[in-house]
């Protein structure tokens, strides 16, 4: 087995759906790939940051081409008033950036750190389920911010 046939980690995704979309794009381009931690993150979303999210893996020799494909902008199939009106209702298209490291590899979801006060902590113990707010999480440095 040569080093170009070895499997390497390419990207990490907070949402399993985003990881599956990336996998589908690569497979459509003829690049074999697979996901890990998909089932764990789907069943237990709070474990996403602990496990590193849903991870996308490719062969070493396909890594550069796969990164180029994933970085390409998706072009809509059709244009018209329906798509334009939908885009006008969409939130700000500028992706948030981490204030600590400047990375755009952030996702919005349930907070992973202790972000609750006394009452929400007590409610979490009574319900046996963490009651936490939502925050942005940076996958590059691990910072959480509003």
Structural descriptors:
146 residues; alpha+beta; 2 domains; three-stranded antiparallel sheet
What features would you describe in this structure?
- The longest helix is centred in the N-terminal third of the chain and has 13 residues, at 16-28.
- Helices cover 35% and strands 20% of the residues.
- The chain has 2 domains: 1-75, no CATH class; 97-146, no CATH class.
- The radius of gyration is 18 Å and the shape is elongated.
- A hairpin with a 5-residue loop joins β5 and β6 (144-145).
- The protein has 146 residues and is an alpha+beta fold.
- It is built from 6 helices and 6 strands.
- Main-sheet strand order equals 1-3-2
Uncertain residue segments: 85-92
Reading the helices and strands in chain order gives EHEHHEHHEHEE
| Biggest sheet layout | 3 strands, antiparallel
Distance from first to last alpha carbon: 46 Å
Number of helices: 6
Helix content: 25-40%
The total count of strands amounts to 6
Radius of gyration: 18 Å
Shape, principal axes of CA atoms: elongated
The overall number of domains is 2
Helix/sheet category: alpha+beta
- The average pLDDT value, as a whole number, equals 77
Task: Report the sheet-strand fraction.
Answer: 15-25%
Protein name: DUF2007 domain-containing protein
Organism: Hymenobacter frigidus
Domain DUF2007: 16-72
């Amino acid at each position: 087995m040569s080093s170009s046939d070895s499997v390497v980690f390419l990207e990490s995704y907070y949402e399993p759906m985003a990881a599956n979309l990336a996998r589908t794009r690569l497979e459509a381009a003829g690049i074999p790939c697979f996901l890990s931690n998909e089932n764990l993150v789907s069943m237990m979303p709070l474990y996403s940051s602990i496990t590193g999210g849903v991870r996308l893996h490719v062969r070493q020799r396909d890594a550069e081409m796969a990164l180029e494909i994933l970085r390409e902008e998706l072009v809509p199939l059709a244009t018209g008033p329906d798509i334009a009106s939908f885009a006008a209702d969409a939130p700000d298209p500028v992706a948030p950036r981490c204030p600590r490291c400047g990375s755009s590899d952030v996702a919005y979801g349930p907070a992973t750190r202790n972000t609750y006060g006394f009452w929400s902590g007590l409610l979490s113990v009574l319900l046996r389920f963490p009651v936490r707010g939502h925050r942005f999480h940076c996958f590059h440095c691990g910072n959480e911010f509003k």
